[in-house]
Amino acid sequence: MGASGSTGGQSGGGSAHRRTALYAGLAVLLLALAALTVIVSDEEVRQGIEPAATADRTEPDLSGPPQTSADTRRPSGHAALVDNPLYSTGQLVPLPCPAPRLDVHDPASVEKFLDTVTDCLDDAWARQFEEAGIPFDPPKRVYWSEGGTSPCREYPSAAGAFYCRAVESIYIGTSDVVEKWGGTEQSAVYASLLAHEYGHHVQGEAGLLEYYHDQRANEPSRVQANAWTRKSELQANCLAGVFLGAVEATYPLDDEDIDAVLDDAAATADRPDAPAEERTHGTAENSVLWLEHGLKQESPGACNTWAVEDESVLQ
Ligand SMILES: [Zn+2]
Known about the structure:
By secondary structure, this protein is α+β, with helices and mostly antiparallel strands. 45% of the residues lie in helices and 7% in strands. It folds into two domains: 10-39; 41-314, no CATH class. It has helices spanning 16-36, 77-82, 107-132, 176-180, 187-205, 208-218, 222-247, 255-267, 284-297; strands at residues 43-45, 140-144, 148-149, 154-155, 161-164, 169-173. The strands form two sheets. The chain has a four-stranded mixed β-sheet with strand order 1-5-6-2. Strands 3-4 form a two-stranded antiparallel sheet.
């Protein structure tokens, strides 16, 4: 299940000896990497709908994700952020994605709902990555009803949902998420949360998390590191909007659903009185702005928060 080394190598006509030597070399390399990378995780957190108490806010992990793929088709470096081929793929193809009925009091129903929407997310983004010529594996899904551990954190946690890059998995608590979101029966809110976490997976597969983590880790202060985190979070909001826009007609999402989703984006943003050291998700205004921008444009190219010159939309 490791995030690294899952690419199948084509071992052509080499002798068994050469292959054995190659594998031995690879094993040594992997061990060395494992020793070097300490704990590699990317945990991104959305807060509950209630104004989150400061203690609830989990620190984004400053360490980077593992070297996940030797595939050279995956963008890297600064260009992966600002000039990613994914940005040129145009609008997501409108998907038939009828949402199943959701009984928020039944964890099995919540799980079925999340599974169905994740199927749609897999289809939509796989197509987009193919268009971009970037390899794509869908994320693994972990829907918890009991506590457990991930390489990124233990759960249940302050967050009802998180993405862990180290194992390329989306984690969602089927009861916790309902509780955190105040028991709302508006399924679009959960779809939006899921699409946001999926947005972090899209960032990872597009190759931009690695450079982003490095840059963030190099910042001398928490406040400066947070500027990077906000760009990542606001991009994930926008990518969520892109998906919601693509399924709007068939889900279907009506005006009330859209309003609920936008209200949620405001509620899960940084609190107005939060100090700069804690401002990792953007103001309510900007959180809504990027989600709505994605919803309207329906294209990942609209979500390039890394190349925006107007800093005010990144606060
Ligand atoms: Zn996030």
